[in-house]
Amino acid sequence: MVNYRNFLIAAVLSAAFPAFGAAGADYRIVAADQSTSSLVMLSGAPGAQAEILWRWDSRKDSKILPTYRNSFRNIDECKPSADGSEILANASCGGVAAVDVATASVKWYAYLPKWNAGPHSLCVLPDGKVAVANSTGVDALQIIDVSAAPLDPVRQKVVKAMSLPGAHGVVWDARRGSLFALGYTNLYELAYSSADMSVSVKRSWDYSAKLCDQYGHDLVADGSGGYFLTNHTAVWHLDPDADRWTKVRDMANVKSFSRDAKRGDLITIAKEKWWTDELKIIEPDGTTRVVGPFPGARFYKARWM
Fold first, then answer.
1. Which of 100, 155, 176, 218 is the most buried (most CB within 10 A)?
2. What does the alpha-carbon distance between residue 52 and residue 3 come to, in Å, rounded to a whole number?
3. Domains of the chain (ranges plus CATH)?
4. Checking phi first, is residue 286 left (phi over 0); if not, alpha (psi -120 to 50) or beta?
5. For residue 229, how many other CB atoms are within 10 A of its CB?
6. Cα-flanking dihedrals φ and ψ of residue 203, to 5°?
7. CB-CB contact of 29 with 266 (8 Å)
8. Residue 49 banded pLDDT, cuts 50, 70, 90
């Protein structure tokens, strides 16, 4: 059992961790905590105390106008940038943002106001616009242009790029120059046009037929041109070039999956309804360990930093 502590760090991230050593820094995890409408960073090193190291609390971020703070309730995504300097986040109540780790405040934020909106994932496109997989009540891939007013959602342009039933995942693939988008039954590879913020289908996979299961949830790149996908019953891997699907793990209702060759597989599986207060790590040697529990936390997704 660990204490659920809140350390606000308003400094460059690398300067915040000397006391934890290189190994501790290597095992940092970012998680979406719905209990506090926050992103939290915690230590996940083997044998080390599990504790909260950093927090972004959307309810206390002065850059977010009070009108929009409730839009970050039920935060459900946390995607760190390659250099760890920012984290992309969205929430099922309509909030979308990029959070600067050094200042623990938003760099930009947006709001998708349609009734019963359910943003579940996002990515930044090469032109700086933002693609969002918006599920409940919307079922669409949406594109947002935040450039004109990064802190004023009213002045931002939002377009519905395509219908996407059960939209839950979206990843920009720089290698292929494509946008990959995941719904409840299909995975799409899309061409993106910056001029009019539109998309067109290059390829699609009806994975519900191929894998005999639907309800795609998490979509993450594997770093080598392939993708991990989770659905109701398992974690899968797709090699798009070979059009080959491989089962990675028999695990039901995995909310998020994050693989690192050194650190292992970081997995969130709901303990209560759709959330958990602990994280599972399966080491490269197959050893399973748990980070937590964190009493009071409601983690939805978690990613390696």
1. 218
2. 8
3. 13-304 (2.130.10.10)
4. left
5. 26
6. -145, 160
7. yes
8. confident
